[in-house]
Amino acid sequence: MLFLQALVSGILSGGVYALAGIGMSLVFGVMNISNFAHGDLMMLGMYLAYFAFTLLHIDPYLALLLIIPVSFLFGFILEKVFIHRVIDHPHQNQILLTIGLGLIMSNTALLAFTSDPKILTTTYSSSAINTASGLSISVPLLLSFVITSVITAVLYLFLAKSSTGMALRATSQNREAAQLMGINVAKMSAIAFGIGTALAATAGALIAPTYYIHPLAGHSFLLKSFTICVLGGLGSVVGAGVGGIIIGVVESMAATYISTDWKDVVVFVLFLTVLLFRPQGLFGKKGGQ
Amino acid sequence: MKQALIIALFALFTALLPLIIGEENPYIIGIMISVLMMAALSSAWNIIGGFAGQFSFGHAAYFGAGAYTTLILISSFELNPLIGAAAGMVVAALIALVTGSIVFGLRGHYFALASIAVAEIIRLSVLNFEFTGGAQGILLANVTLWGLDLNSKNPFYYGMLLLLIVTLTVTEYLRKSKTGYYLQAIREDQDAASSLGINLALYKNRALLISALLTSIAGSLYALYIRFIDTSAVLDLRLSIEIILTAIIGGVGTLWGPVLGALLLVPLAEALRSNMIGDALVKFGLVSETSSVGIFLNENLAHAHVLVYGIITVLCILYLPKGILGLFRRVK
Amino acid sequence: MSEPILKINKVSKHFGGNIAVSDVTFAVEKNRIFGLIGPNGAGKTTLFNCMTGFVPITSGEVIFNYRKINNLRPDAVCRIGMVRTWQRVKPLSSLSVLDNVMVGAFAITGSAGAARKIAVEKLAQVGLSDYSAKLAGSLSIGLKKKLELARVLATRPKMLLLDEICGGLNHTETASILQLIRDVREEGTTILFIEHDMKAVTSICERIVVLNSGVKLAEGTPSEITSNPEVIAAYLGGGFDA
Question: Among candidates C45, B247, B303, which has minimal Cα distance to A111?
Fold first, then answer.
């Protein structure tokens, strides 16, 4: 029973991780950039949800309708103004730029909102569905999982069927070839980063009812998101989705069977193990990158 | 030969500085110790990051290894601090070898990510174990070494200076040697380097090892100096980033870039932290102490130094990616 | 007929479903200038990558100096004496021209002084002495190719693999490089030449292998190859400058 409980909780929370991972993977695929501000973008989503709730009295899950376009726009602008300039620069400079942007975001939040953690409690924040077999399913987790699935399905359709989506995929596979085919790769980068930001912010908003909201909250998700991307295969959206669920389950199992103090360590050790034995991840192509 | 002379002159000048400034300014000596330490840390990082082009984002792991190993051995076993520092170097070497063997066969972003993962694993482990002091950290009451009074600042000033000089000398020696040429080739183009007979993993590991050992010595010195350490002081990601930023701003891959970076950033951070800038603005009448701007600055500038770091980082990458010295840099 | 320094035995390379090289077999005699030609996408560079350890071989053997070198690491391949240049030049851009060649020279010496001497000598051989202090990244493409040649020569290779070294060069530059290659061959090095420029190939190669779509199409002397109807047909899709 303990195992099943841990499994279910892990899958549900894995959904949110998957969302964050997919956002990062998309950016990596299309732009070949590791976005170290990803965690801070999640943090922004958390605060957006918090303020939508406390100031506008909108339920965080409903607020998504607002948060998604706003954060997409934010990411789009961020790419156009900053990230775009280093797209051909060495990887390390790209990483440092995103780190710098992340530092600005988290520390501006620190100055604006102070480091006192905010708590977003909805009427259902601690509700749980108790099944007959004794499983306790957290309602917010379940809702986030459902929403995540919907968003992932929409994203999948978008990438598979729409012309922009196909252009994004083409750019992701081979930037030069895409450019030669007439695709505006610069615009694709901005769109990809916008989507990545929106997904990160959404993930943040989804966990806002169950997490302490504070300016540095995004940092623990940063390395986890990278782990998910590497596990799934850098640039593979499907891989990131699967990877997210796996990480959610691994973390849940570690928290249950070892302790919550060590769950992050387990995830990071898993990350190193993947690098050691299968660096291309589950769905990536072999070749060292 | 020229660089060796400059290093020697720099060493001489810096060594005489405390005698000139005198004992009445322990605050300034303290700042200078921080400058020397950050310069040493950045220079050590530069060996793997600047010359080999492998950006380690988890160098705090080596700093913490030195600091924690030293203090644990002293406080639990009352061992001589030098043995503690040597043991710290061994631990740092192990971490470097493990990290290197996992990632140096791969290309791209993996080393950066793996270095963070390793550092975080170590940080979280130290936080969770009892013998490392957990969240409370480790406090050392008293330390003596051969009768030297380790409660004063001067021994650490000279200790950090010595470490910096050693690091600069090692860097300069490497640069002119086969290893240095090979590391730079790896940085420029790994495939080309490989096709010219360079064993990528071997040389990257070598550079990381040297860098880790030097970094751990700094950690040991720091631990003996402050005599209190915890994970947020010596194992934090922020420290790793500060080290990189210092090198970037001064000029990554150059000999004096990290030193220049430290000379600029450490006093700036201190000025922000101690509210010196806020006070100065008030003193010069630019801002009224009681105005809302004044109050805001007074309360927040102290916390803003990381924000300023972030802004400097972004500006630096966008407009000065080779750092200040990079502007003047010729071939050698 | 001198003994073969390089034997390619039924080498194949598959990238998933894509068969880049299929069952290719040929031998290169010592101290010869041997050409490897074929239309775009024929698998020439892939074959080079297989031989030099940059890409794992799916099946077959590469035998260099009677030693099977399948899947050796690229740096090991260099150390046993087989060194390559790159179709897209790879200068070490932030280093000087002299430093670039010194990196090559360090393959056979550990001393910076000795490496410098070798580098100076090789730069003189290719005619780049005047550019010694210049940043490698600032050179024109023709000079970058010469630099790459000087760099690999500094490793004192037994066999040189040249991947389209005449690509992007004008006639004077091409003639200059070809003469250099002849000189290098005189010194005892074996040369394997991927080239597109048929004039260059026929003027300098003693024997030629033709690849098409990963398969060996023909092998022979330049005159045999240029009069081979299958070869001519293969090139009638483009990429053949007769």
Answer: B303
Is the pLDDT score of C149 beyond 50?
yes
Whether B40 contacts B216, CB under 8 Å = no
Beta bridge partners of A128: A138
Instruction: Please give the residue that has the higher pLDDT: either B272 or A68.
Output: A68
The residue whose two tokens read 């006070």 is: B279
Check CB contact of A181 with chain B, cutoff 8 Å. no
Q: DSSP letters of B4-56?
A: HHHHHHHHHHHHHHHHHH-TT-HHHHHHHHHHHHHHHHHHHHHIIIIIS----
How many other C-beta atoms can be found within 10 angstroms of the C-beta atom of residue A8? 20
- Domain limits, chain A: 1-119+140-277
Residue B234 — very low, low, confident or very high, per pLDDT cuts 50/70/90? very high
Question: What residues have CB less than 8 Å from B329, skipping those under 6 apart?
Answer: B251, B254, B322
Burial A48-76 (b: 16+ CB within 10 A, else e): bbbebbeeeebebbebbeebbebbbebbb
Contact criterion met (CB < 8 Å) for B113 and A223: yes
pLDDT per residue as tens digits for the range B52-80:
999 999 999 999 999 999 999 988 888 88
- Residue of chain A nearest B297, judged by CA positions: A111
Taking the C-alpha atoms of residue B9 and residue B27, their distance in angstroms, rounded to an integer, is: 25
Cα atoms found within 13 Å of the Cα of residue B282, Cβ hemisphere only: 16
Torsion angle of the four alpha carbons A131, A132, A134, A137, in this order, in degrees rounded to the nearest 10 = 0
**What chain A residue is nearest to B308 in terms of C-alpha separation?**
A104
Give the integer Cα–Cα distance in Å for A120 and A118.
7
3-state helix, strand and coil shares in percent for chain C, rounded to the nearest 5: 40, 25, 35
Q: From the DSSP assignment, how many helices (H) and strands (E) are in chain A?
A: 11, 2
Task: Give Cβ neighbours of residue C99 (< 8 Å, ≥ 6 apart).
Answer: B181, B184, B331, B332, C92, C136
| 8 Å CB contact of B112 and A91 | yes
Closest CA to B157 of B262, B33, B263, B40: B33
Say how many CA atoms lie within 13 Å of B138 toward its Cβ: 28
pLDDT at C42: 83
Q: Helix, strand, or coil here: A117?
A: coil
Total-model pTM: 0.90
Q: Which residues of C touch B200 (CB under 8 A)?
A: 75
In the structure, what pLDDT confidence band is assigned to residue C121 with cuts at 50, 70 and 90? very high
Distance CA A124, CA A134 (A): 20
> Identity (one letter) of the amino acid at A21?
G
Instruction: Out of 1.10.287, 1.20.120, 1.10.3470, 3.30.420, select the CATH number for domain A1-119+140-277.
Output: 1.10.3470
Note whether B237 contacts A230, CB cutoff 8 Å. Answer: no
The 3-state DSSP class for residue C67 equals strand
User: Residue B283 has which token pair?
Assistant: 């003193």
Which residues lie across from A138 on neighbouring strands?
A128
Distance from CA of C231 to the nearest CA of B (A): 32
Q: How many CB atoms lie within 10 A of CB A190?
A: 22
State pLDDT tens for residues B158-215: 999 999 999 999 999 999 999 999 999 999 999 999 999 999 999 999 999 999 999 9
Q: What is the pLDDT of residue B45?
A: 97
The span from the CA of C128 to the CA of C140, in Å, is: 12
SS3 content of chain B, % helix, strand, coil (to 5): 75, 0, 20
Q: CA A258 from chain center: how many Å?
A: 26
The DSSP 8-state label assigned to residue C2 in this structure reads P
Contact: C103, B181; criterion CB under 8 Å: yes
- Is the CB of residue B215 less than 8 Å from the CB of residue B286? no
CA torsion angle B54 B57 B61 B62 (round to 10): 40
Coil, strand or helix at B262: helix
| Record: contact A288-B106, CB cut-off 8 A | yes
Distance from CA of B75 to the nearest CA of A (A): 25
Q: What is the pLDDT of residue A287?
A: 40
